[in-house]
DNA sequence: ATGCCTTTGTGAATACGCGCACAAAGTGAC
DNA sequence: GTCACTTTGTGCGCGTATTCACAAAGGCAT
């Protein structure tokens, strides 16, 4: 962390911990749910339960935005929705392009959670000639050649990459060169980008693998029958595959 | 403490940090990539670069699995692939059911990353009569009424929930009652489950919101024109919306 | 106004994760 | 065998995150 960021840390609005930022959207969702049900105020205990976190953590998170609660009462739902939205930058629209219109790209194009949070999809792009021209979620798929035009023309600042793994880095380089400074990557590769560009990754199979790890643990862990034979074999022992399958 | 004692403690003691577990799939992917290119050994520096992490962190992560490297040489790719796979529980098959066959469910059903890692999809289920019976990714969509049959019949241990938000908790309760102990949730709700059941969440719009936060920061942060008027207004000030739009 | 009750905001303690830097361990040349 | 070189495995310090626990603050009844 730079000294500059450090200096601003005490003041609400800057220096919000990354862990807190990651939870704000969860709080926001819980709050909009309460709002729709006509709830006017909520205590940290109730909101924390709805968001699935510890109430002290919730209060500390919110305290980073400022003192928006009333002791003895709780938080005003509508006001908190506004403050969190503002902090997250959702009081303005963000223009998004989706590159790669396979199964996942289609799902993303039709995903309601984007539009409802101020994310406007400016274009769907693909390299496959048989997909270009198709109408998906009310939009016509455009050829990847038009990438730079669309980014510049619509002021796209966030690119969603849903291409095959092999194409992702190339696409990423192009969108960054065209001025995009935030990338949401669904392709199973590690993207490298210059400083100043943010990348977030969503990998469906990684989440499943983490679940498998814990699932295995519940069932007795990896040190079962197999590892007695193979687990402590020294590096260079080539027969481990056969051993575990024997 | 000797390295050997240390290894026994970690391997026997389930001491693998959650942060490490979350990175193992990334290492595994990088390693299989190297394997396909015929690379036999790799140094922590090279592998770390491929995985996008610090090399010391990589070495520490791998040390939790045991001492599988050779000083002065590096790690044997094939052996490491096997050890990580074993630790993650990927040397056995996991049976998965996908509930909710909307856009996202379809994308998941066709996602290659599942099958290639030992995750077998035993069924696609939906409540919508017009979807039931459709053929998707080589499977016939079944009615949600058959949920319990399918879970018991195929030994499903992991459920993937891709339903609308409103249906997710109900589906979750049913799959848990039917014996599922791991849930991957794509619905934008916080699921509550009994102890012993793991839930992981993937939320597409949360990732975008986090990007928006950083994007806004690059552009000057939320403390711009608006917040000078409204940002520090006390709770109870009702005119904040008008203020920010004025 | 006073006192009781509720709930926030936060200091303090603890746990966790990260990365530097280096000793230990292994390889290969001669 | 010995020496130079490479790379692992990890001790250590530092910063961040989480949780507890409580004083301070506000509401409300009387």
Short description:
The structure is a homodimer of 246-residue chains. By secondary structure, the first copy, chain A, is of the alpha/beta class. The first copy, chain A, has helices at residues 3-7, 18-36, 44-51, 55-63, 77-88, 103-109, 112-115, 147-154, 165-177, 204-218, 225-230, 240-245, and strands spanning 41-42, 69-70, 74-76, 94-99, 119-126, 135-136, 139-143, 158-161, 182-185, 198-201.
What does this structure look like?
Chain A has helices spanning 3-7, 18-36, 44-51, 55-63, 77-88, 103-109, 112-115, 147-154, 165-177, 204-218, 225-230, 240-245, and strands spanning 41-42, 69-70, 74-76, 94-99, 119-126, 135-136, 139-143, 158-161, 182-185, 198-201. Chain A has 246 residues and is α/β, with parallel strands linked by helices. Chain A has three domains: 3-88, Arc Repressor Mutant, subunit A (Orthogonal Bundle); 94-202, NAD(P)-binding Rossmann-like Domain (Rossmann fold, 3-Layer(aba) Sandwich); 205-245, no CATH class. The model of chain A is unreliable at 1-13 and 225-246 (pLDDT under 50). Chain B binds a DNA duplex (30 and 30 nucleotides) through residues 3, 6, 17-20, 43-45, 54-57, 59-60, 62-63, 67, 69-75. Chains A, B: It comes from Actinomadura soli. Chains A, B: Pfam families: CoA_binding (PF02629), Put_DNA-bind_N (PF06971). Chains A, B: One of its GO terms (molecular function) is DNA-binding transcription factor activity. Chains A, B: Homodimer.
């Amino acid at each position: 962390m730079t000294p500059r960021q450090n200096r601003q840390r005490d003041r609400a609005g800057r220096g919000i911990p990354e862990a807190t930022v990651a939870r704000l959207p969860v709080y926001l969702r819980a709050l909009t749910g309460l709002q729709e049900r006509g709830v006017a105020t909520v205590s940290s205990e109730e909101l924390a339960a709805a968001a699935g976190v510890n109430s002290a953590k919730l209060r500390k998170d919110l305290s980073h935005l400022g003192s928006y609660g009333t002791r003895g009462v709780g938080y005003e739902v509508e006001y908190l929705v506004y403050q969190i939205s503002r902090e997250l930058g959702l009081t303005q629209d963000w223009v998004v392009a989706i590159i790669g219109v396979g199964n996942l790209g289609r799902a993303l194009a039709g995903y309601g959670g984007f539009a409802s949070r101020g994310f406007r999809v400016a274009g769907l792009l693909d390299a496959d000639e048989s997909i270009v021209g198709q109408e998906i979620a009310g939009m016509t798929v455009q050829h990847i050649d038009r990438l730079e035009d669309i980014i510049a023309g619509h002021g796209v600042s966030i690119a969603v990459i849903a291409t095959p793994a092999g194409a992702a880095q190339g696409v990423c380089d192009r969108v960054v060169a065209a001025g995009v400074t935030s990338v949401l990557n669904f392709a199973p590769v590690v993207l490298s980008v210059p400083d100043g560009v943010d990348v977030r990754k969503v990998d469906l199979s990684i989440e499943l693998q983490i679940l498998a790890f814990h699932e295995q643990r519940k069932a007795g862990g990896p040190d079962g029958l197999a590892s007695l034979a193979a687990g402590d074999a020294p590096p260079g022992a080539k027969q481990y595959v056969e051993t575990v399958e024997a």
